[in-house]
Design goal:
Strand order of the largest sheet: 5-4-8-2-1-14-17-16
Strand content: 25-35%
CATH superfamily of one domain: tricorn interacting facor f3 domain
Structural class: alpha+beta
Helix content: 25-40%
Largest sheet: 8 strands, mixed
Distance between the termini: 35 Å
Number of strands: 23
CATH architecture of one domain: Sandwich
Shape: globular
Bound molecules: zinc ion
Number of helices: 11
Radius of gyration: 23 Å
CATH topology of one domain: Immunoglobulin-like
Amino acid sequence: MSTIHVTQRLWTLVALAIISMMVVSACGDTASGSGGLPTLAPTITALAPATPTDIPAPDPVDIPAVNWDDVDRFQAAMRPGYENDIKRYMDRNRYYIEANLMFEEGAAVLLGAERVRYVNRTADTLDEIVFRLYPNMAAAGGRMIVYRTTLNDVPVEPTLAERETVLVIPLDHPLAPGESAEMTLQFSTAAEQGMFAGYGEFGLQDNVFSGPQWYPVLSVYEEGNGWWRQRPSTQGDPSYLETALFEVLLTVPEHFVTAMSGTDIGVTDNGDGTKTVHNITGPMRDFLLVASPGFGQITEYMDDIAVSVYFWPGDEDGAEYAMDVSLDAMRAYDTNIGAYPFAEFDVVETFNLTGIEYPGMTIIADRYWRRGDPFLETVLAHEIGHQWFYSLVGNDQVNHPWLDESLTCYTEYIYARAVHGEDEGREWVQNDRDRYNFYLSTGAADLVLNLPVSAYVNNNYGAIIYVKGPLFYVELERMLGRDTLMKAIQTYFDRFHYEVVTSRNVLETFEEVSEQELDAVFYQWVGEFDGLDPDVIADLQTRQ
Ligand SMILES: [Zn+2]
């Protein structure tokens, strides 16, 4: 996800104005709220999410058995030379999904069923498996219902928690390390036309359906912490996911254009006004689906990677510019960070606020689709950087957003240097220095980087994670030299792509590559985390 760079200063002023208004009204009002803004009843936030549309319980679906060892067809999702990643990662989470997408009565409705295999790759024995129903999160504003669930082909009764964003499947016998469980879930997902929540990543607007996590998604089990069940705030990216292989058979009206995370390997005309698109992926941590009857599409190549841009009628010129920037950004990161391993990358124009990253895809806000728009360039450089940091090297985006966001902001400098030269690269860094200094000059808190999203309020989140964050990597560049920093970033990417990282992984890799102790600078900028040398922290704390 991206903050609004170009208008950051304006937003800061607006935010300050709002804060001072709040201070004034808080001083002038009585507890009853009379004479001021209407006071919401306190119970309103405790209500269950409303169903945006009536969805009848669908007929039971016979989801076929899957031979999980038969993975040859998945190789089509990989860039030539990276096909072996399929066999290497075939024991990761596996999803086989059949679904039908319809736009009807002002809503996008997906009726589907999935067969999921989970292999216990942890050292713990598990007694339950946890799914997340992301459309039910406040940040999504949609609705997901799970109707029928089986565990190893026997019906099972799951429980729901956290306002129906957590679905728990109890296991009939404990799942030891290395053992697997197979589940089927029949589900419906709905997005009401015009219902806009959070950053506008999920929903139906202007005949475009945008659906990250539109299927029930396996949560993440952390040794020592258990399953991730947290309900994220509406700020920041809400998901925490592990890589999986997806096979999706999606039925849509025949005139729909679909953009999906993986690669289409077949389209069947069903003879009833619908078609079924068969899409498979490499190891990806989410499967985004965007569909519309109105999309135009252009495709070009960055070496052997097919880059497609999906756009609204009338925005051809903006789409061509988006293509130019995307090809430049893909090449800059592929050359300077490490190889992009998938056969395709898609950029899609949607109704979201700025831009949001997904595996193999990014969605970019419609309002910026103009040739030469500086924000369109910046947001594309940012979201495409996320292919390397978030999509490939993954992290808990809710509790450690700095891991993907701050390094992705630093990739913007890599883009500027590679595409426009050193002088412009220096300008992009200086812009961030100016913004950070302006932020500090307002008296706002100078927080460390490794805090959960919920710890940042007002404009702290954008200023600390997106502006101070990349400047931390500039500081490392100053200490280590750019060649060593880039080698550390390349090693980190090479070592942890397809995995989930913690702050310790960054510190240890950068120390190893640079052959320097970096605990002090990490403590100063990033804050405390597991892996820092306690003696160094104690020493710094006594000096403070
Ligand atoms: Zn981002």
